[in-house]
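To close the chapter, one final illustration. This time we ask the reader to focus less on the individual chains and more on the assembly as a whole: which components sit near each other, and how the overall shape emerges from the parts.
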Amino acid sequence: MDAIDKKLLNLLQKEFPLEEEPFRLIGERCGISEDEVLARVRRMKEKGVIRRIGAVFDGKKLGRASTLCAARVPEDKLQSFVHIVSAEKGVTHNYRRRHEYNVWFTVTAANTEELQALLSDVKKKTGVTDMLDMRAVRTFKIDASFDL
Amino acid sequence: MNIFSAGQIKAAKILQSDIPLSSRPFTDIAGACQMTGDELIVWIRNLSRQGIIRKVTAILRHQRAGYGKNVLVLWSVPPEEIDDAGRKLAGLPYISHCYERQPSFDGRFNLFTMLHAKSGDISPLLQEMSRLISCPDFLLLESLEEYKKTSPEYF
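The assembled structure is written out below.
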């Protein structure tokens, strides 16, 4: 990644122009052509630096329910547990963490009832019953952008 | 999702995943969704104004972008102080997410923050946070393995 790539990433993380030719506008701000912007963005996607370019919807405003779960999973059940959890479409993050509660995952569903059903289903399928469900009652910040 | 038309749902499906890398990406999306490019842009702007769309941007894989340290840090804050503490921690540039959650973890950790750093020692950052909210009681939850990391599919 050179200086232009970093500038591009900083700009693209701040705001993707809602204009007919967004990449041309970005190029003007970086002093490069539209073609070069597209080539650089393509390269950074191939390298996995850029996951996607798109909209971030507010799940809560759409009426969705979500939560963070922490589960205490015995070592011999770990592989099957994380496999079953990750296979759920509503699960967006799934991590092993250094704690007695060793698997932490976030999950979203159409509403609270469906979320509850999904978690019960995971417990039943995996046999793991020690699973905490910690709802966000207040959001102070959501801004996963990184200064480069 | 009855507030959206069929074409809008189609557009939302594309927007929640990936915009095409073309000269006129909105025109291209709109063409598949019974809209014009201008109509699509106006619609996105309206949703942004209403907060239904939080932002339209590039989403990075932070590890690949050079941010190797990503730690969940939980704080035990008295309920009457959580508003102030939440706002203060949210103001720090290296904090991406800050939530109050219930029930609290381990009977006392109620404020959840996600911290990101390029590398090296994060203890100065933790000290800064701890001082800022006058809270000595925190729990670090280092990630040992990432099994899944995706954007939610709402549509």
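Chain A is about 40% helix and 30% strand. Residues 112-126 of chain A form the longest helix (15 residues). With these observations in hand, you are ready for the problems at the end of the chapter.
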